[in-house]
Q: What sequence folds into this?
């Protein structure tokens, strides 16, 4: 029964992980309106005046001006990559909310994946360990090997208890 529940739990983890992988690979839905397109680009830029919010979420005047500039640039036909490049050239790399995928910043992309893989490996080893039957051969249940003299004494005591109960 334990083995079947462990297999069912492992299958559930694999299914949910696969579903998350498909959703992550598909990415977000394409923006439909101009406001959605502006918000999509603005959410990748850090607000220069508040530093802890994206341009899309910041109520500051600077963020409003940047959102208006993004809308103007989109109407002029610039791509999201060109618009982010413009703001990066103007404010530096610190305006980007996502780190670049090269150099030391590559660690920010690689380490979380490695941690997830290590966690899944540990989870798999735990499932394997739980599903293995317990070995009863060799040492007794307490895990201690009895000497021949101790075993003889134990058997004599067990026989004496059996005789007393009958």
A:
């Amino acid at each position: 029964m334990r083995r079947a529940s462990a297999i069912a739990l492992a299958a559930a983890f694999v299914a949910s992980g696969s579903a998350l992988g498909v959703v992550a690979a598909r990415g977000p839905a394409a923006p439909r309106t101009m406001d959605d397109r502006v918000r999509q680009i603005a959410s990748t830029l850090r607000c220069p005046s508040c530093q802890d919010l994206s341009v899309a979420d910041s109520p500051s005047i600077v963020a409003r001006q940047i959102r208006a500039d993004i809308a103007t640039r989109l109407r002029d036909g610039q791509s999201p990559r060109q618009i982010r490049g413009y703001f990066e050239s103007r404010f530096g790399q610190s305006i980007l909310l996502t780190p670049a995928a090269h150099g030391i910043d590559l660690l920010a992309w690689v380490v979380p994946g490695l941690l997830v893989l290590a966690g899944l490996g540990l989870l798999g080893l735990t499932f394997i360990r739980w599903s293995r039957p317990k070995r009863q051969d060799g040492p007794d249940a307490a895990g201690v090997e009895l000497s021949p003299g101790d075993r003889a004494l134990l058997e004599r005591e067990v026989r004496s208890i059996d005789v007393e109960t009958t």
Observations:
- The domain at 32-98 is CATH 1.10.8.640 (Helicase, Ruva Protein; domain 3).
